[in-house]
């Protein structure tokens, strides 16, 4: 902590009271070598998240966003009120382990030209969770995902290129996209790009940021030495709600970063992915909760296939 923080740690909460309190506890327990400030933005939680943080951690700058502008909107609200030279996005459903923030900041100092730095995420049992870095989507990655081949051959960098299937997460790696759950970037680049685009309500906003940064010559990079536990998706009521938002973000990313010719093909491949999942769930057990959730996603295709248009 300090009057002149090196980094601003930004958390956006939405009905994640207990997770948020645990995340903040680990931030303060595991960060020793970095001058930091913590800013929490609450997106209209109904579980007393804001009040609990204000009471338990008075050193945290805790704000109500005045509504629910989504993850990107909440982050913008927080960054606009921060002072650090570096901006660290940290999900409230994470646990900082083994001085992960100190390690990530040290790594950033050693690789200053990359411009976006991230670590490795772990499951609750501390096994590696690979959902922290991705390759940019292309025809083959979307096709293999739609056909289920990326899941069948999940350790293959050919069939599971999108998730870097053959990378064991024990080495430093330059990637296309980093997850926003543990995402460090300099304020100078943040300001140059205008931060996360708030029109992405939730999901793919960090992908859009990374792709825009890459166009300027920056290269997102991951260090295996900075590790956090990420529970994931705790602010969602159900699977279909999460997936509809995820698909909507993916479509918007395609509409912004691919040619018109590719857009039509790539969106059809996302549609095929949903159709195949719906058919598979029907074959396994029609009428099951899983099948009903995929049916909801399919029924909302007129929404997510337009992105945020």
From TrEMBL:
It is an enzyme of class 2 (transferase). Its EC number is 2.4.-.-. The keyword Transferase applies. It comes from Oceanobacter antarcticus. Pfam families: Glycos_transf_2 (PF00535). This is Glycosyltransferase family 2 protein. Residues 8-146 form the Glycosyltransferase 2-like domain. Keywords: Glycosyltransferase, Transferase. The lineage of its organism: Bacteria, Pseudomonadati, Pseudomonadota, Gammaproteobacteria, Oceanospirillales. SUPFAM superfamilies: Nucleotide-diphospho-sugar transferases. One of its GO terms (molecular function) is glycosyltransferase activity. The keyword Transit peptide does not apply.
């Amino acid at each position: 902590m300090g009057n002149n923080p090196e980094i601003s740690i930004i958390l956006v909460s939405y009905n994640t009271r207990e997770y948020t309190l645990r995340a903040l506890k680990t931030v303060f327990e595991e960060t020793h070598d970095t001058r930091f400030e913590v800013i929490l933005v609450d997106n209209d939680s109904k579980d007393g998240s804001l009040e609990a943080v204000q009471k338990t951690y008075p050193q945290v700058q805790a704000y109500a966003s005045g509504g629910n502008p989504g993850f990107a909107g909440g982050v913008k609200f927080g960054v606009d009120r921060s002072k650090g030279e570096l901006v660290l996005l940290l999900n409230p459903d994470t646990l900082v382990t083994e001085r992960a923030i100190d390690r990530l900041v040290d790594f950033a100092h050693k690789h200053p030209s990359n411009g976006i730095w991230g670590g490795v995420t772990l499951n609750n049992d501390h096994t590696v969770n690979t959902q922290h870095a991705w390759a940019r989507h292309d025809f083959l990655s979307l096709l293999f995902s739609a056909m289920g081949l990326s899941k069948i051959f999940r350790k293959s960098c050919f069939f599971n290129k999108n998730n870097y299937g053959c990378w064991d997460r024990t080495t430093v790696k330059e990637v296309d996209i980093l997850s926003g759950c543990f995402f460090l970037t300099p304020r100078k680049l943040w300001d140059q790009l205008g931060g996360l685009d708030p029109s992405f309500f939730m999901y793919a906003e960090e992908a859009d940021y990374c792709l825009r940064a890459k166009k300027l010559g920056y290269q997102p990079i991951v260090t295996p030495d900075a590790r956090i536990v990420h529970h994931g998706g705790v602010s969602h009521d159900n699977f279909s709600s999460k997936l509809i938002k995820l698909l909507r973000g993916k479509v918007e990313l395609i509409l912004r970063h691919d040619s018109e010719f590719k857009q039509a093909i790539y969106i059809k491949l996302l549609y095929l992915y949903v159709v195949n999942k719906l058919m598979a769930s029907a074959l396994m057990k029609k009428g099951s909760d899983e099948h009903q959730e995929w049916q909801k996603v399919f029924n909302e295709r007129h929404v997510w296939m337009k992105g945020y248009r």
